[in-house]
Amino acid sequence: MTITTLSSRELNQDVTRAKKAAKRGPVFITDRGKPAHVLLSFEDYQRLTRQRRNIADALAMPGVADIGVDPPRVTIGAQPADLS
């Protein structure tokens, strides 16, 4: 899977390029350098909007491996119960 980034101007100048790129993976479309839209193939869209999705399907979606996640570490400590 390939992620492609195009500016709005590039999209307007070459829609065919964007459509071909969407067959290989999502196309991020930027406005003034910031992501504004995503172009997907219809198959990828259907996969995203499917109602009955399990965790395995969600993790197998294209692009998930490219998402950086750095959750904060949480320490859970035990406290004595007050039984009075």
TrEMBL record:
It holds the Pfam family PhdYeFM_antitox. InterPro entries: Antitoxin_Phd/YefM, YefM-like_sf. Antitoxin component of a type II toxin-antitoxin (TA) system. Belongs to the phD/YefM antitoxin family. This is Antitoxin.
